[in-house]
Amino acid sequence: MSTDSRFTHKIWQEEELSKMVPGGVPFPMLSDAGGRIGQVYGVYDEEAGVDIRGRFLIDPDGIIQATEIMTPSVGRNVVELIRQVKAFQHVRETGEVAPAGWQPGKPTLKPSPELAGKVWQVWKPDLAF
Question: Does the pLDDT at position 99 exceed 50?
């Protein structure tokens, strides 16, 4: 959602996103022309009349599960957004825990008192930077 028009979203989806994410983003983009929703979420810049870069993952129960707010000078990672959506969906369906960087089909963690303090023994993250 942004203060951009639906026409701007259409062009952005066709000309930009479809090149970064095959098929574009798999969810609708909404226009918040007056910035009313951006105001509610605290990302509307009144002076500029635009929403700053904010991302909110909201589950089917209406609970915010994740947020990210960036200054306009730093872009967001669409691939990471989609990974997180898939991770939240998996967690919701299974009750398992998706560790950082988790990808569909990769091992998850099963929460338990025995796991506390031993995650590093069970999960070996790829820490390549």
Answer: yes
The number of residues making up the chain comes to 129
- The verdict on domain 1-74 having CATH code 3.40.50.970 is no
- Encoded tokens for 113: 């008192």
Is the sign of the CA dihedral 99, 104, 106, 108 positive or negative?
A: positive
**What pLDDT shows up at residue 66?**
94
Helical (H) or strand (E) element with 9:
helix 6-12
Domain locations in the chain? 1-74, 77-124
Three-class SS of residue 120?
A: helix
Decide which of 124 and 85 is more confident: 85
**CB neighbour list of residue 58: distance below 8 Å, 6 or more residues apart:** 64, 65
Q: How confident is the model at residue 129 (pLDDT cuts 50, 70, 90)?
A: very low
pLDDT of residue 126: 62
8 A C-beta contact, residue 67 and residue 54: yes
Please answer whether residues 16 and 46 qualify as being in contact, where contact means their C-beta atoms are separated by less than 8 angstroms.
Answer: no
